[in-house]
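Supplementary material to the annual report.
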Amino acid sequence: MQITMTVNGTDVTNEVEPRVLLVHYIRDVLRLTGTHWGCDTSNCGTCVVLMDGQPVKSCTVLAAMADGHAITTVEGLATGGTLDPVQQGFMEEHGLQCGFCTPGMMLTARALLDVNPHPDDTEIRRAISGQICRCTGYATIVRSVHWAADHPAGMTEADAAGGDPAALDDSAGTTTEPGAAAAEAARAIPASQTEPEEVTA
Amino acid sequence: MTILQEHAPNPAADDEGRPIGYGRLQRKEDPRFVRGRGHYVDDITLPGMLHGAILRSPVAHARLVSIDTTAALAHPGVVAVITGADLLGLGLAWAPTLSADVQAVLVTDKVRFQGQEVAFVVAEDRYAARDALELIEVDYDVLPPVVDARKALDADAPVVRDEMEGRTDNHIFDWEAGNKAETDAVFAAADVVVSQEIVYPRSHPAPMETCGAVADFDAVTGKLTLYETSQAPHAHRTLFAMVAGIPEHKIRIVSPDIGGGFGNKVGIYPGYILAVVGSIVTGKPVKWMEDRSENLMSTSFARDYIMQGEIAATKDGRILAVRTKVLADHGAFNATAQPTKYPAGFFHIFTGSYDLQAAHCSVTGVYTNKAPGGVAYACSFRVTEAVYLVERLVDILAAKLEMDPAELRLKNLIKPEQFPYPNKTGWEYDSGDYERALRLSMKMAGYDDLRREQQAKRDRGELMGIGISFFTETVGAGPRKHMDIVGLGMNDGAELRVHPTGKAVVRISVQSQGQGHETTFAQIVAEEIGIPPEDIDVVHGDTDQTPFGLGTYGSRSTPVSGAAVALVARKVREKARFIAAAMLETRPEDLEWEKGRWFVKGDPSVGKTIAEIAMGAYGTVALPEGIDGNLDAEVTYDPPNLTFPFGAYICVVDVDPGTGHVTVRRFVAVDDCGTRINPMIIEGQVHGGLTDGVGMALMQFIEFDESGNNLGGSFMDYLIPTAMEVPDWETGYTVTPSPHHPIGAKGIGESATVGSPPAIVNAVVDALAPFGITHMDMPCTPARVWAAIQGRPRPPI
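Predicted assembly:
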């Protein structure tokens, strides 16, 4: 069957089998591999994309069901080379490790902030509660979303200059609230704003 | 080239506690990940690539009577169907495991666990391959299975491995450590002895990315390129050379970005081998990616230790000895990834953090009709089981003695002046200041206030628990004289090249699955030779581009490979000294180092930066005798000992007496991983491990029914913590550098997974103390907690 949808602002039309899952359509047909899959059964949330601005698990949506709708994937988060504040927040607050659940987490965060620009911890946790992360323990994801909420315009020059240099330099201490603390802030490297190098097989 | 000074002084040592290499840096990996431009195995598409799918057994134990693949072969899009009989013809039906056993790649004689690989379909797309699985007709003659490890050694137990000549039982190994006679004597004379059966149930690491591979065999060159979800690409290459008979120089293993490992991606699974066979047979690249149920049901599980533990003490709370007998369920094939001499891994660290007079353990491994493995899930070397055992026993002892569990621990911890501390089972703990860590955790938690709050709540009939654990790990395997895996010494290589313009590339043998090696290993080099981390590229995960080494698991990357990287940088620094001397027309011994440059002693204005020296090395400077025209070096690091990270954890739980639901309200974690590199990454790894601990203690559990059916084969049944089940972690740290590691680092990756389950279970049991409860087996699910409160038998789940 023929389907047409808008993906990251671009209209696409393809012939697909009626049974093809949206996640496979996005990955295998459109070759947008930033959307991952982790279970195929709607349990892990790795495959979350936005459909008309709402998070959906793309392993549980048929491509045919997305016909006529607008899909946003992680590749559509940045605009004109400028990162979404959510993307910047995940880098600032270490909201990712292996990176596999990250696209889905960021899209849910974007959808949350669109309707609730200043969520509290519980609202953030509830929003991502359908998604599993095995690396981070979630606290840094919560911090990342707060960072994005606090920086609706994204990274500024003041942010890039580094944060509170006070913490983390003793031989015993606590790191409950590191914020943007840099142990050696004066020498800290500004966050990269450039495109990453291409990684090829 | 000339061997230069290998063990330069540690620049971090004179500034205790300072994170090295610029400390909290953003990760170099992140810009690609947040843009969706990571590059995982399933993202790889090669021209003409086919897709494989595995038919798995629905039953746990059965003779294979027949397989009919006719209909599957006729299905549109299907290119090949491979069975065990086909593999027998190729000599590939069985493959060696990492533990001197063999594992069936595809079933030839009988099925030994539910989910075992029976046939492999190769088709033009993943849907066609899956469709064809339904069309394969298999006739099974079902046999009674061995499910309960306790019954595996019964005289009438079915024999799982009857293909092995002369085998009439399910016994795999007996192993022991410590001195039994001494330990028994201490127990016989002790005032107080408490005993407890403690079960560490079967669980699964369940990384978000399942296991998979893309195999690309070039029939013209004879070269196999295998993209794999592998934590140990070099070890896999050697094993593939041994298994498949392809010469090792014709094998290239690439581990691209890996979506989490936690031990799950150490082993070589039948799927990887089948992708290779599929590519050889079809002449095209073949991709195989398992789905979630396949991952949970067939790849390496973790734990499954039934431990009879005993602890002896004086009546005033001096711990004297610990002894334990363990029954280890290894599933259908002994596929653990333990060093050869240690079939129970490093379980003999069960002596914990206490100054004991004696200790003894004996471990018996058995076969059952369950998935093989036992390699997995931080810490793979059985440290997790050991720490859980001793920390539960100490709490049971505290209850018996009516002592506060913190006080009992403080009374028995090994003291700083006792290090290096030889324990009673053969380890030499490298360094520690245990009391400092425990007291810091108690201060952060507000321990005394918590106890007062608990008493007030108990008076009102509310259930609140406070649990403590103090753990010592043994990681960074390991010294080659003691430790190998299938004959490969557990060492790691590193190569460093400084380019003419002063930028650098460091090539390492370990493989990141999210740990951030591209950042932290650049930071180690930056600390040693003064090139900023952003100017140092870290190459890993490709056997054609990196030196040999055993890979990333058991928290070994920083202790072993990190040491290699520090030493290779020091080697380059020493070489730079000779070149700088030539450039400055002085003697090497007249030069002094400051970060990034050599200068003339007494005249700091005269010197050469690393970049200037690099240009000199590749340029036209007249080089001294024995110095080549480059600024490169390589080393392979053989650690003199393991490292012993430690920590003190305190968990606060609230238990709903009506439902049995446990809420982890607070969790304080104080870790000491020696010298710290990137505090942000350390904190992240601790957070992740603590979340694993919540899962293990309260939720995660792979159970089987009496027919051997796996009851944890999906995320609906195998419960992983979400953001709703975990608190906002409270982390702290102390720094006690390892005296034998070049930068003093000990490793952090598994500390929290090791340390948190006992803290949580201790808290749950503490909450239930008013009911006279002194032990509960994990996971402390609502049903189990409720039944315990009610004095009812434990429900299965």
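Chain B has 18 helices and 32 strands.
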